[in-house]
Design goal:
The complex is a heterodimer of chains A (244) and B (615). Chain A is of the alpha/beta class and 244 residues long. Chain A is built from five helices and six strands, in the order E-H-E-E-H-E-H-E-H-E-H. The chains are: A alpha/beta (244), B alpha+beta (615). Bound molecules: guanosine-5'-triphosphate and magnesium ion. Chain B: Keywords: Autophagy, Endosome, Membrane, Protein transport, Transport, Vacuole.
Chain lengths: 244, 615
């Protein structure tokens, strides 16, 4: 539409990280957002994938630099590397799996403790297509367990919403499979980023920050990783300096 | 060249070991003109020398000794694989022979000889779950029984591995279908099957790989689900620890037609059960590949730490998501993997100048935190960059390749940043790999020791790809890939009897081979070919086997193995091929590879640090 590229419009890169338990659909959400596609049998992410996607809004154009992290337990210790300096985070759970919401809450509190202070967090309940077809009132009013008849929903919208409100998070339920609300989440985020944190569009700034940043507060991280998480930060300080 | 000349004398179809020593020249390439093929020892033998009586080994299966503590020979069955009969013992000396005699080989000798093993009944009683009704055992053994039948002259129809010239694939198509579903591939879905059926299916697999903790906790199994497996894991653990209690290490044993190989690696036990006739050392190499894969995910230090803290930790939690890699590797090794068999990698064949172009682009734009840089296409190497001080071990590279190509997760066109431990480089820590399949089959992989180097690597990749594009290299790579491997007729004259070969360059730690087509384009044919290679490889690598040339005639094929200090060559020709012609072809292949060396391999090293192009 806006044929010529934004003259007055604000344009900026935003670093976004996706966190959440394995198999909740993080990669699928990104795939839907970036390629408008869905794969029934997406393989687990190993480490993290990096993608970029532009999001054009009436007032601003945002280029998301997306870190789609692996939800597997052993990668938990790497997470700080990805959320450090992130301006926004999508914390994803699976509405058919209550434990995934618990895990999501762990991520939220880790972000609140350790990520940049101004970080915009969205809580996203994915796999909405698996919920029971809730016929009438779709805005939050789940009359007890009734609405769950016939569906696989195991986390009530109201419950998650209440938690999100309490913590000041954006909240959406999505389906990467049908595409429902996926664009909506990213647009909402793009709108929610405070103008002050929008840098004029520069190149991707490394894992942002200088190079002294390394360790800091990452190691212990969140106890949610059950204490047995592998420490993937045991880097190889390659014998006698490899990069000769 | 003159490979098509008619055989001067018909190939002998009976074992007639003939040793002739001419120790000269073993290192040099005999020229095609050489009046006779120059071999140190020529051995003609049929692996399964005396024709077997019809399905003799059924006796074994019906006897209740599933875990056979007798020597395989005494039970009248020849164990699958490389079984030299006493007549050939001259050239396949002690090592091989002994292995055949001892059904159970432990560190200190055979189970029958182990003094502490007084209660053989109790061991058997541990195993009855493994043993089974005749049907089950037969289904487990069916494949090998049939194969041996073939060796013995039965089931002549099953010539699908090597159809004699012109016979064509069409003729064997019908036969292949018959074996399609007994196979290794997992196409059939197992949902909704009863437990009995599940167990039966599980048993019918040709090959199993297990990983368990030394406490007996299941960690990985290629086939079968928890309900089927947990019992077996317990049995295996019990057997292993039975020996360990005596400070003895159980390395392998035979049960019926199945060979069990066991490796205790760190806090893990790895077990292979195979009915495909591999030698123990080959099975062990396969287990090592699996172990390496586990290490790459966890590092040895983490693995040790975890089990030191909690002996009964459930490691599956931490390996979650890597099953695809273990599965892919297991399947490759069941199908038969030249990489694993030869411990070597394969390159995309291209002109020297083209490869040098790519090398120099990588070199020129290498960024400060780069450790290793690779361009990979179609599962093969195009170019490898490494610092002078750090060699790159083939096992580490293989691991990387198996990760990249056994799962689709990295091939989605996106950019990836993932921790990876290359155990031969350093088993204690992680490196970080930037992986980008910037074309469907072509990837740049940049490995750094710095976990924060993603954007640095990404930038380097950007420049490298741009420069490759400019230089036309990407087009060249893609063309090379789409053209596929060369064929035997590109190497030899068009009438050649040679159907396929494997050539391993020892200096380069790389191998080359022609296309599997047209003769081995089905999965079955390919698996059989690889099975043959594996037997040839075992023969020339058997302990104490000082074979330099090994000539093997079977009903379905004639083959030749040739080992020199600089290379190993395995060639397979159509049945009835003449021996002299075969030797001449081998010579011609070796000469061809020598000539094409710089196109076939990534060259870059002195002998002591084999790999590769370096900076
Ligand atoms: N029905 C349904 N299935 C989904 C949806 N999103 C993802 N899936 C499926 O859930 C599985 C896991 O999806 P992924 O996108 O790989 O999950 P992930 O969070 O990236 O997992 P990790 O990379 O292991 O952390 C896949 O089989 C998807 O096809 C959805 O909205 N609806
Ligand atoms: Mg993912």
């Amino acid at each position: 539409m806006a044929s010529r590229d934004e003259a007055p419009k604000l344009s900026s890169s935003v670093k976004l990280v996706l966190l959440g338990e394995a198999a909740v659909g993080k990669s699928s959400l990104v795939l839907r957002f970036v390629n408008d596609d869905f794969q029934e049998n997406k393989e687990p992410t190993i480490g993290a994938a990096f993608l970029t996607q532009k999001c054009t809004l009436p007032t601003r154009t945002i280029k998301f630099e997306i870190w789609d992290t692996a939800g597997q337990e052993r990668f938990a210790s790497l997470a700080p590397m990805y959320y450090r300096n992130a301006q926004t985070a999508l914390v994803v759970y699976d509405i058919t799996k209550p434990t995934s919401l618990i895990k999501a809450k762990h991520w939220v509190s880790e972000l609140q403790r350790q990520a940049s202070p101004g970080i915009v967090i969205a809580l996203v309940g994915n796999k909405l297509d698996l919920a029971a077809p809730v016929l009438a009132d779709d805005d939050g009013g789940e009359e007890g367990g009734d609405a769950m008849n016939g569906g696989n929903r195991a986390v009530l919208t109201a419950e998650a919403k209440a938690y999100a409100d309490e913590e000041g998070l954006l909240f959406y339920e999505t389906s990467a499979k049908t595409g429902e609300n996926v664009q909506g989440v990213f647009e909402a985020i793009a709108n929610a980023i405070p103008e002050s944190t929008l840098k004029p569009r520069a190149g991707a700034g490394g894992f942002a920050g200088g190079s002294g940043r390394a360790g800091a507060g990452s190691g212990g991280g969140d106890a949610g990783a059950a204490g047995m998480a592998v420490n993937l930060e045991d880097g190889v300080r390659a014998k006698e300096g490899c990069a000769c | 060249m003159s490979t098509t000349s008619p055989p001067p004398s018909p190939p002998s179809s009976h074992p007639s070991p003939s040793a002739s020593t001419s120790s000269s020249n073993e290192d040099q390439l005999p020229t095609p003109r050489a009046p006779t093929h120059q071999t140190t020892i020529t051995l003609t033998e049929d692996y399964f020398a005396p024709p077997l009586p019809p399905r003799p080994s059924l006796e074994v299966t019906t006897s209740n000794a599933f875990l056979s503590v007798h020597s395989a020979t005494s039970s009248g069955a020849s164990t699958p694989g490389l079984q030299a009969k006493p007549t050939t013992a001259i050239s396949l000396p002690e090592g091989v022979h002994a292995q055949q005699q001892d059904a159970v080989v432990s560190g200190n000798g055979s189970i029958t000889g182990a003094p502490s093993f007084s209660d053989s009944v109790s061991v058997k009683s541990l195993v009855p779950t493994l043993s089974a009704g005749d049907n089950d055992v037969e289904s487990m053994l069916g494949e090998i029984l049939e194969e041996e039948g073939e060796e013995g002259g039965f089931l002549k129809a099953r010539r699908d591995i090597l159809d004699s010239a012109g016979g064509g694939v069409g003729g064997s198509a019908g036969i292949e279908v018959e074996f399609e579903d007994d196979g290794w591939d997992e196409s059939s879905d197992e949902e909704g099957l009863g437990e009995e059926e599940l167990v039966a299916r599980w048993r019918a697999k040709r090959k199993h790989f297990f990983i368990l903790s030394s406490a007996g906790k299941p960690i990985y199994s290629r086939h079968g689900d928890e309900s089927v497996l947990s019992g077996y894991m317990g049995v295996i653990q019990a057997i292993i620890s039975f020996f360990q209690d005596d400070n003895d290490t159980l390395k392998g044993f035979s049960a019926g037609k199945h060979r069990f190989a066991i490796a205790a690696s760190g806090p893990l036990y790895l077990v292979a059960i195979s009915s495909m006739g591999e030698s123990d050392s080959q099975l062990r190499a396969q287990l090592d590949a699996l172990y390496t894969q586990v290490l790459s995910t966890l590092t040895l230090s983490q693995l040790n730490k975890i089990f030191a803290q909690r002996g009964n930790f459930d490691l599956r939690r931490l390996l979650g998501g890597t099953e695809v890699f273990l599965d892919g590797l297991s399947d490759a090794m069941t199908l038969g993997s030249p990489q694993v068999l030869l411990s070597a990698l394969e390159c995309v064949k291209m002109r020297k100048a083209h490869r040098e172009n790519i090398n120099s682009i990588l070199l020129k734009h290498r960024s400060p935190n780069l450790l290793y840089g690779l361009v990979i296409a179609d599962g093969r190497m195009v170019s490898v960059l490494r610092p002078k001080r750090h060699s790159l071990h083939p096992a580490d590279l293989q691991l990387l390749f198996s990760m990249l190509f056994n799962a689709s997760t990295f091939r989605d066109g996106g950019e990836h940043w993932t921790p990876i431990c290359l155990p031969k480089f350093n088993s204690k820590g992680f490196l970080h790999a930037y992986i980008h399949f910037f074309r469907k089959e072509v990837a740049v992989v940049l490995i750094s020791a710095d976990k924060d180097a993603f954007f640095e690597m990404r930038e380097m990749k950007g420049v490298v790809v741009e420069q490759l594009e400019k230089a036309g290299s990407i087009k060249i790579i893609e063309e090379a890939v789409s053209k596929g491997r060369y064929t035997t007729t590109d190497v030899l004259s068009s009438g050649t009897a040679i159907r396929h070969f494997l050539y391993r360059s020892k200096n380069n730690v790389q191998f080359t081979m022609p296309s599997f087509e047209p003769h081995f384009y089905t999965v079955i044919a390919r698996r059989r070919l690889m099975n043959l290679y594996q037997r040839l490889h075992a023969a020339v690598h058997a302990k104490n086997a000082h074979l330099k040339v090994h000539h093997c005639i079977r009903n379905s094929s004639v083959s030749l193995s040739w080992v020199t200090p600089t290379f190993e060559l395995y060639c397979v020709a159509a049945a009835g091929a003449n021996r002299t012609a075969l030797a001449k072809s081998a010579t011609a292949i070796a000469a061809w590879v020598k000539r094409e060396e710089e196109r076939l391999f990534v060259i870059g090293g002195v002998a002591s640090s084999p790999f590769l192009f370096y900076y």
